[in-house]
């Protein structure tokens, strides 16, 4: 699946005619909360068609929340078509198991949630480039039995952990999101840690800063 190109940070700000539907005066008009919410809904619709990854949904929702003007807000979704078709149902929950050894998996599908089990081994799931679930929410059932489950999530998601532990540990190392809960992708982690650990974290780099940098540079050239 070909993902949409992110904006070129070195490109000059386009003239008014480059943003369909925005007149010269509208480009400098401050965006309203309702307009930001409409853009986030558009992002969710595009996500339901598989156009955005989980990370991109989080990034663009953040950018919509940060946008000050209608021009900046329109730029967040300028490469996305208006979506009218509903999402196609997936095949069901995906299961990943590390049994008596270690397993690392990148970009699994998230349509109907994930079951992650580690028994006498370590399981690492990197979800940063996974296609975002159509609803913007994901449930992960994690079981760490004398082993560890590591979940790598993109910046900008909100995490709820509701797991039990018996001589194990539960660690949420993600950084707090800065957007409102209503527009922030939600990851629910359930399950249990028995003589093992369930760890949720971000990758080492802060990739969400890309959109903040892009907006700052556009404002600097205005």
From TrEMBL:
Matching PANTHER family: MEMBRANE PROTEIN (PTHR40763:SF5), MEMBRANE PROTEIN-RELATED (PTHR40763)
Biased composition range(s): Low complexity: 14-26
InterPro entries named among the record's database cross-references: DUF1707_SHOCT-like
Region (Disordered) residue spans: 1-33
Record Pfam families: DUF1707 (PF08044)
Span of domain DUF1707: 30-81
Entry protein name: DUF1707 domain-containing protein
Superkingdom: Bacteria
